Amino acid sequence: MTTKSVDVLLVGAGAMSATLGTLLKQLDPNLSISMVERLDQVAQESTDGWNNAGTGHAAYCELNYAPLMADGSIDTRKAFTINNAFEVSLQFWSYLVEQQVLPAPKNFINATPHQSFVWGEENVSFLRKRHATLSAHPAFADMEYSEDPEVLRQWMPLIMQNRSPDEKVAGTRVRYGSDVDFGSLTRGMTQNLQAQDGFELLLERTLKDLTQRADGQWDLTLKNGQTGGTEHIRARFVFLGAGGGALPLLQQSGIPEGNGYGGFPVSGQWLVCKKPEIVNQHLAKVYGKAPIGAPPMSVPHLDTRIIDGEKALLFGPFAGFTTKFLKQGSSFDLLKSVRLNNIRPMLSVGMNNMDLTRYLISEVMQSHSARVDALRKFYPDARAEDWTLSHAGQRVQIIKKDADKGGKLEFGTEVITSADGSLSALLGASPGASTAASAMIGIIERCFADRLASPQWQEKIRAMVPSYQQDLMQNTELLAQVRNRTLSVLQLDEEHRAPKSQPAPEPLDSIQALAS
């Protein structure tokens, strides 16, 4: 039996694995890395452009990231955390563009204003308060607010068509929001990795077994879908970045840190319009409020999408339920994930989330006309014949132990790492790929701590992310310089970057000096 040895094995060829592989290869080009993917192409599950909303999540427009609290205040904690994390991604992508690792920015990211829209007195009051609270911080100071129908008609013409003049409405806008083609971004990073020595992409390989050796390394057995044979790899570090497929692999690894975790699969669907006469009237991502009982991933939004250069509009998502953990997975995935150590949390979540269950059932039963009726609340003139139904990627929400309730359902992302740092797994969904750089740097901090402490790695990581180890929500002077640079490099604020009104981006060494 021939066993290949590598320093790093990445399971899943999506945005997370590509980001971690790229970070590590930039830090040490001599690392040997293999990326394993069960499908025949890269970025075909949740990372694919049509399987996600493509929102560069910065908490500008997503109302659930800054909710109204019982005492009437706005909780900004998640908004600040997500905004800071997305700024890390923008810095990393800017570095890759400058180093010509990635192609021209418009191949994977495009300026698309991020807007919120609500109607009704209560919702308008909430949005007014949300804007006042967030815009008081420099990170959100560019957020505009209006209750003027004429201003809103300029921001979101489709949404304001034929609305009653008596309807109370309000909106916010951040002009330099972004639409990200995560599929294109991932393929760009992977192609660059393939051009380097010491990297191997193994497509149509399914991970069948992983076992940790006495020396801490991992022995992995792969099934080759092309030949039907088996292959063996020994890895010093394993990253399970297989989307919904990460949970079963985490369980199979046997690390105690994975005990108690379960998954709740939620599918999604979009209404898609590709008619140029409609698409060209809308350039924004406009988020509203989620229906009562809906999971956070079901916040309705009307989005401009630019995938492989093609523009379209998406509305949704409409939630659904399936027992698959991957879009191209098995109907037995949920059943197979049940273990003695997670059955109590999973049963507890099932019993305590009946409203969510009823909501998902109602979503599944919707007709096309019912979905279009939901769209008309956003876009009053929408016609059913202009929109088709598209199935989004599969999301597996996290179920974990809870001392009080027995189990709880979470809608974020979480990294689980073994005590010895030899294996990490990423579970969960939104904000997902938008915060990939921050999440993967966190893995490097935990699993490559000794090497990261070296002067060489410190210098390299600060070149990739000048704000490394800085909280941009606190260091607002650094935030201003970093944001000015990334918006310029990624071409996200071109219309508003006239020399008289916008300073030239600071040189990278000046930003690094401020950060240190």
From TrEMBL:
Pathway, per record: Carbohydrate metabolism; tricarboxylic acid cycle; oxaloacetate from (S)-malate (quinone route): step 1/1
Gene this chain is encoded by: mqo
Family: Belongs to the MQO family.
Reaction it catalyzes: (S)-malate + a quinone = a quinol + oxaloacetate
Protein EC: 1.1.5.4
Keyword Flavoprotein: yes
Keyword flag Flavoprotein: yes
Needed cofactors: FAD
Species of origin: Marinobacterium rhizophilum
Region (Disordered) location: 495-516
Molecular function terms, GO-annotated: L-malate dehydrogenase (quinone) activity
Identification of the protein by name: Probable malate:quinone oxidoreductase
Enzyme class: oxidoreductase
Swiss-Prot/TrEMBL keywords: FAD, Flavoprotein, Oxidoreductase, Tricarboxylic acid cycle
PANTHER family attached to this UniProt entry: L-2-HYDROXYGLUTARATE DEHYDROGENASE, MITOCHONDRIAL (PTHR43104)
A Pfam family matched in the record: Mqo
InterPro entries: FAD/NAD-bd_sf, MQO
